[in-house]
User: Which sequence fits this backbone?
């Protein structure tokens, strides 16, 4: 079983719609969760981090965490063509020896159609 | 200009050849990381270093080597033992995470695309 799993997509939504991206993780001790956006040929950029169960909102982005179900999601409201990218879910296990190292999922490619 | 510099942007390797990817940072971060990304895939950790003169293997260290002689530099050598080296290589840095605290934000370089001739 992969440590971090995402729907590979591609996911296609019309402009203005809500895009929903999902991620599950296998390690119950995982403490911190991140969503990165990566444009083709570029490096990832952090868009959301979440550490506690529940929702965290930042502008058009909402991250949702459910540690009991080992599930984290990202909602993008009012999707724009500029949101078209690959979204990577990443998990930090929180152990002393791991520092800030992250385990990434394979990413979900999102296309927002004008 | 602060940040992380990876060079070269594109690199070609001949069969049997070792090549070294450079990663330099002036963010004064303690921790540095090397990730590999294959097309349509996520990032996989090769090696990481939390302090000078110390480094640990990640999930796919075979065929790679690193050194951390200076805080600013963490070069990655792709050896001839790595039979499938074609990938996008990303260097990242972070402040050192303290025990029981949240992990520090990762900062990424712009990447090196390695291809085999």
Assistant:
């Amino acid at each position: 079983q992969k440590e971090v799993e995402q729907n590979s997509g591609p996911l296609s939504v019309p402009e203005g719609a809500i895009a929903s991206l999902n991620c599950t993780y296998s390690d119950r001790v995982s403490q911190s969760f991140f969503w990165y956006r990566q444009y083709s040929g570029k490096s990832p950029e952090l868009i959301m981090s979440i550490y506690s169960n529940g929702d965290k909102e930042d502008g058009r982005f909402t991250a949702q965490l459910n540690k009991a179900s080992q599930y984290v999601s990202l909602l993008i409201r009012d999707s724009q063509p500029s949101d078209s990218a690959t979204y990577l879910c990443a998990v930090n296990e929180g152990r002393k020896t791991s520092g800030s190292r992250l385990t990434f999922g394979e990413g979900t490619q999102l296309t927002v159609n004008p | 200009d602060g940040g992380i510099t990876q060079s070269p942007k594109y690199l070609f390797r001949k069969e049997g050849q070792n090549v070294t990817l450079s990663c330099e940072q002036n963010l004064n971060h303690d921790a540095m990381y090397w990730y590999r990304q294959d097309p349509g895939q996520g990032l996989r950790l090769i090696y990481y270093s939390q302090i000078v003169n110390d480094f640990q293997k990640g999930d796919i260290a075979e065929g790679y080597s690193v050194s951390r002689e200076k805080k600013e530099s963490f070069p990655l050598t792709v050896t001839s033992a790595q039979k499938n080296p074609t990938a996008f290589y990303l260097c990242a840095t972070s402040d050192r995470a303290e025990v029981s605290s949240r992990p520090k934000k990762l900062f990424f370089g712009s990447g090196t695309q390695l291809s085999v001739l």
Notes: Chain B has no helices and eleven strands.
